[in-house]
Amino acid sequence: MWVFLFLALITTLVPNDTFARSIRITSNVPRNQKLLLSRDLQLLKTLSVENPDSKLLEIMHTDAVDSGKLEGWLEDRVQYVVGESFKFNEALFIAEPSYSYENLNDVPVFEKATKHTGGNSSAKVIMSNIGVSAYFKGKEQHTLSGLKIPGVDDVRMTSPRVGVVQIGEGLFYLFEKRLPKSPQDSMAKSLARLSTLFHEARHSDGHGKSLGFFHAVCPEGHHLAGYSACDRNLNGPYTVGALVQQLMTESCDTCSVEEKEVLRLNYLDSFGRVIQETSSVDWDDRPEGSR
Ligand SMILES: [Zn+2]
Fold it and tell me: Would the pTM of this model clear 0.90, i.e. be above it?
């Protein structure tokens, strides 16, 4: 069985890029995936949500959450979605040979995973925030990174908030086994993909040591022990994704009982990625740079 991971770190071409407000699904995303994601983002605009968890309000720095708030929060952190065939190393370039960064010597601690995705691993990446990877690479070298994004001008990575995420091989296989009868355009699968975007969006936040809200290695005893698939904070991507999915699930009137149960198990799994013993703190969520 596949286990889905998110990482911080595409292919029939469609003539014109699709704009879903300010989140741009770029031209190397296959047409069928582009249509589904555009529909998901459209759905987000009209979503009716009730009784958000107080932690979600705290994380979003607000006293009320509705579809507009959710959409705005996401759009502040994600601008471009690139497809699975996007080659990060080929797209990365130096936009400026020297660049001034804040918190230059205050950088995240990377935990060394002993297990990895890809190859024969059963762990599949759902989505990756490659914008923060590009930003951090520039910061390490005191240069400014750029990304050549298909159908878009060269993008200067002046902040992780520039917001570039990449579709992973797992995104369109979510719940393939557990909800075989629910089509890809079902509400349940749309909500799961939207929650994934919120998870990735959180990787666009952070400051100094918390930059990118990079993941921790799951401890022994966890079902993902050894993988970089946990969080060592109380306000990171797994918490955000779980809280958003919980909110959307419990507010979903059209989801079947079976679909709701699967969504619940999924967000509970995300809550289970927060390492309780060493995660009793919120990380600094102020972003670096500006877009
Ligand atoms: Zn992640």
Answer: yes
